[in-house]
Write a structure and sequence with these properties.
Helix 2 runs antiparallel to helix 3. This protein has 4 helices and no strands. By secondary structure, it is mainly alpha-helical.
Length: 113
């Protein structure tokens, strides 16, 4: 079982994503490591780390690249929605009463700009 250092931040970010498809994909990716590790051989000694270390590195890379991609898409959709709402509603209502509830946590993941 793998414990994530920033698990709470990652879970908060996943929960705040706009599309259920994204949320489900991320939950599947995060949970996949336990199945991956159960079938991956361990190393024999200090110099042979085996497949587990490599599997964890690939898994981390996959999780990070996917969450970065979904965050970018989330922000793009949010900007489109804000533009549409600002045409129909006063800016202060949109900025104070709508957008704060759609924002993702402010944490920046490795690989984000």
């Amino acid at each position: 079982n793998v414990d994530l250092v920033e698990e709470a931040v990652l879970c908060d970010t996943i929960t705040a994503l706009l599309l259920e498809e994204w949320k489900n994909d991320m939950k599947d990716k995060v949970g996949a490591i336990n199945q991956i590790l159960s079938t991956t051989p361990a190393g024999d000694d200090f110099y042979d780390v085996g497949g587990k270390a490599q599997a964890v590195q690939l898994w981390i890379s996959s999780v990070l690249s996917t969450i970065v991609q979904y965050k970018a898409q989330h922000h793009s959709l949010l900007n489109e929605a804000a533009t549409t709402l600002q045409l129909a509603l006063p800016n202060d209502i949109v900025n104070k009463n709508v957008l704060p509830y759609l924002e993702l946590p402010s944490y920046t993941f490795e690989g984000e700009d």
